[in-house]
Specification:
Layout (H helix, E strand, L loop, with lengths): L34 H4 L3 E2 L7 E2 L7 E5 H7 L4 H5 L5 E5 L5 E5 L8 E5 L2 E2 L17 E8 L3 H4 L6 E7 L4 E7 L3 E11 L3 E12 L5 E2 L18 E2 L4 E12 L2 E12 L14 E13 L1 E3 L3 E21 L3 E2 L5 E2 L3 E21 L4 E24 L4 E7 L12 E14 L3 E12 L3 E13 L4 E12 L3 H5 L10 E2 L7 E13 L3 E19 L8 E23 L2 E16 L6 H8 L14 E11 L2 E10 L2 E2 L5 H5 L3 E2 L2 E11 L4 E10 L3 E2 L15 E2 L4 E9 L1
Parallel strand pairs: 6-9, 29-32
Antiparallel strand pairs: 1-2, 3-8, 4-5, 6-7, 8-9, 10-11, 10-42, 11-12, 12-15, 13-14, 15-16, 16-17, 17-19, 18-19, 19-22, 20-21, 22-23, 23-24, 23-25, 25-26, 26-27, 27-28, 28-30, 30-31, 31-32, 32-33, 33-34, 34-35, 35-38, 36-37, 38-39, 39-42, 40-41
Length: about 700
Amino acid sequence: MKKITNIILFFCFGFTCFSQEDTTKIKKNLEDLSLEELLDIEVYSASKKVEAIKEAPAILSLVTSQDILKSGSLTLIDVLKYVPCLEVSMGSDGNYRVAIRGSRKDGTVLVLINGQQINDFYSGRAIFDLPADMIDRVEVVRGPGSALFGTNAMAGVINIFTVEKTSISASVGPFGNINANTNLFVEKENSDFALSVGYLQNNTNNQTIEHEKADILPWSLLSGDKKFKTNRWNKDAYLSSTFKSKGFEFQVFDIYRQNSAYVGPVYIATTDSKYITNQLMSSILYNYKIGNNVVITPKFYYQLNYKNALQQEAPDDYVSVSGDTFANGKLTREDYLGTTYGGEVSIYIKINEKVDFMTGSVYENLNMNQYKLDRNYKIQGDIYKGDFANYDNISYDQLGKKRAVFAYYSQMNYKSTKWNLTAGLRYDDYSDFGQALNPRVGITYKMTSKFRLKALVGKAFRAPTFQELYDNTTLGNEYGVKGNTDLSNQSIVTYELGSEFNTKTFLIKYNLFYINNNNLIRIYDPHGGGSIGIYENIGNSELFGQEAELIIKFSPMIQFYANFSHYINKFEWNQENVSEADYKFFEKQPYYNKELRNMPTIRLNTGLNLSYEKFSLFMGSSFGNSSQNNKRFFLEKDHYVEIPYYLIGNFNLAYQATKKLYISLTANNIGTKYSDPDESTNIDAFGSLGLIQPGAMYLLNFKYNF
C-alpha cells in the first residue's frame, strides 16, 4: 500500500493558504510543500492583494481545507479554537463568541466571506459556527484592519473563502448531529463556476447546570432537586455560489438558520427560545485591466439580514411578583430586517517592480427596513397577557433608521530584496455619528534567508451599532438596556513586533503586541442598583501581550505543533461617563484589581499528527488558565466567581479508503470547560464556576472527491 506522506502540517492552524485570485491555479499538493515553501504561499487579507505570507504586513494565521479535513472540524469554531490568542465560547443566548487578544464584543471582529462582510449591522454579531464543508480556507488577521476594511476590523479579521472543487461529504453522530454537503466546481479555459449547498444539524452536546438566577424559586427548572440540561441546537441550510469569467466575478451566499438558546437570554433556565436567521449577500465586480500595470475594479454588493427571535425569559408556569401565573412563560418576540447596498471602486497601479499603489472609494447605505418587538406580558406590573402585543406602548426608535457611509482609502507598497514597506490610510464618514481616520504602517525585513522580522502599527475602529444607538425596547437582560445616540466610535491603536525563524525541520514565530483601546462601548448602569442600563463609552484599556508558535517536522509521518499566548489587560474608567462613586471605588483598588480577567489570559494549543500506510491520526489539545470576575465597581466585585482552567482534547482517526474516498472518526471537546456570561455583573448567574460549555461530540465522517 502506498504511504501517505506529509500528512497535515498544522502550524497552529496558521499557514497553508491560497490567494483569492489564484485558488484554481496552484496545483501542487500542500502536503508536498517544505517549510520554506509554506512561507511562500500567497494570501489576500493582509493588504487586499496577493502576497507571500512571510511578506504580508500583518500577523496572520491560515487554515486550508486539508487542515480542516484532517482535524475533523465540523464548523468554523472548531478551527478557530486552535489559532493563537483566540478564545471561543458559547454565551447563554446560544451564540458563539470569539475573542481576539482579549477583545470579546459583538462587532470587534470583522467576518468576511470571499471578502464581503457578514456582520449584522444592527447587533454587530456574526455567525461563527459556519459549516466547515463549505470552507476552502480561512485567513485570520490578528490585529487592526480598518485601514482597508473599515468598521468592525478592530481586534482582527476572519476572511473565509468558499470551496472550489467537486465533492460530496456527510457526517453523523449521536444526539441527532448530521451534516450533508455537495460541492460542484466546473472550470473552463476562461471561466469557472463553484457551487456549495448543504445542511447541518448540530444538537450541541448539552450539559447539566446546577445554578441560575432564579434557582431558589419554585417555578425555576432548577428549583430544589431539579436538574436542567442546556438546550442549544441549530439547523442550517446554506448555499454558496461563485462565477468568474474574463475578469468578471459574481457571488451569492445565503444561510438560513434556526437555533435555540443555550440556557436562556436573561440567565434563567428556559427551553422554548427559538431564533430564525437569514443572511443573504451578493456581489458583482469586474477587473478592468489597462495594459499590464493598471487594474480598475468596480464592485457592487447587496446584503440582507433577517432575524426573528422568540426569547423565553422565564419558563412555563412562571409566577410574577403580582401573583400572575404565566402558562407559556415570559416570552418576547423580536423581528427585524436590515438591508445594505453599496459600491466600491478600487484602482491598483504597479508603478515598477518595486513599487505598487492601491486606492479606492466606498459608498454604503444601511437601512432598518423592519423592526417589531412584542411580548406576551406587560412590563409594568409584570402582568401576563397570553397573546403578543406591545402592551407598554414602547416606541421602536430603530425602525426606519438609515446610515450612509462614504470612505476613501489608499495604500502604497515598496518592495526590495531585503525589506518591504506598506503604508495605508482610510477615511470613513458616517451620516449618523461622525468620522474616523485610520492609518497603518508595516515593515517586513529579511535579515537572512532563515530569519525575518515584522514591525507593524495601525489604528482601527468600530462604529456604534443601530442597537447601541437607537434601541429603546429595554431588551437585553432582566431590567433591560437602552440605546445612546451620544455614543462615540470605539477605537484601537496596535503596535506589533513579529519574528520568525525556520529550518528544514522546524519553524518558530514570536510576536509582541501593545494595544491601546479607547472609548469601550459596554452596558453600564448609571445608578449602580440593577435598574435599566445604557450603552456607554465606559473607558479605556491597555493590553500587553505575546504569542509564540512552533512546528517541528520530525519526518513525513510525524509532525508536531504548539502555540502559546499571554496578555495583561489594564482598565481605566472614562470619568465623564460613569458615576463618581464607581470612579472613586476603582481608583482605591490595588493594581491587580484593575486588570480585566473575565476570560483566560494564558492559552496553549498543541497538536500531533501521525500517519502510517492509509491511516492518519490527529491529537490536539487546548488549555486556558483560570479567570475571575472583574472588579471595576462594587457590583462587579460583589459577584464573585473563579472560573477554573480548562484542558480540552480533540482527536481524529482517518482512513484513506481509496484515492477519492476519505473516512474519519472524530471526537471533539473531550473535557470540561466553563466560561463567563456576557455581562460581568451577571458573571455568577450560573454559579461560582461560571457557565459550563458544550460537551463532547463524536462524529463519523465521509468525504468523496470527484
